[in-house]
Write a structure and sequence with these properties.
Blueprint lengths: L1 H15 L37 E2 L6 E2 L6 E5 L2 E5 L2 H9 L1 H10 L6
Antiparallel strand pairs: 1-2, 3-4
Length: 109
């Protein structure tokens, strides 16, 4: 045990005097480069009509009706959901979420 502690202390003291060499300017990597972000839906042809999207009334997420996890009809209007959780929350208080969606305000939490 004492030997391992001594080894750690000796190596720590050796590192105090270490200085790294500077890299040449031509090999330096630019850290300020912009990240590449790809946005879009590659399930459809680029030249086709844009896919219609609905808004999940519970979380406000944009949902493609063709690929929605769940849907529900309330007072003649169909609502699409991003997850089963949002659909279950909507089922508990559909009137609250339907009213806020129609007015365009934020959904209740």
């Amino acid at each position: 045990m004492a030997l391992s502690s001594l080894s750690v202390v000796v190596n720590a003291n050796r590192l105090r005097g270490f200085t790294a060499e500077r890299a040449a300017d031509d090999t330096a990597v630019s850290l300020a480069s912009e990240p590449v972000v790809e946005v879009g839906d590659d399930r459809h042809d680029p030249g086709s009509e844009p896919t219609p999207h609905a808004t999940d009334p519970v979380c406000g997420m944009s949902v493609d009706p063709a690929f929605a996890t769940a849907s529900a009809t309330h007072e003649g209007h169909t609502y699409y959901f991003c997850s089963g959780h949002c659909a279950r929350v909507f089922d508990t208080r559909p009137t609250d979420f339907a009213a806020t969606t129609e007015r365009g305000s934020a959904p209740p939490q």
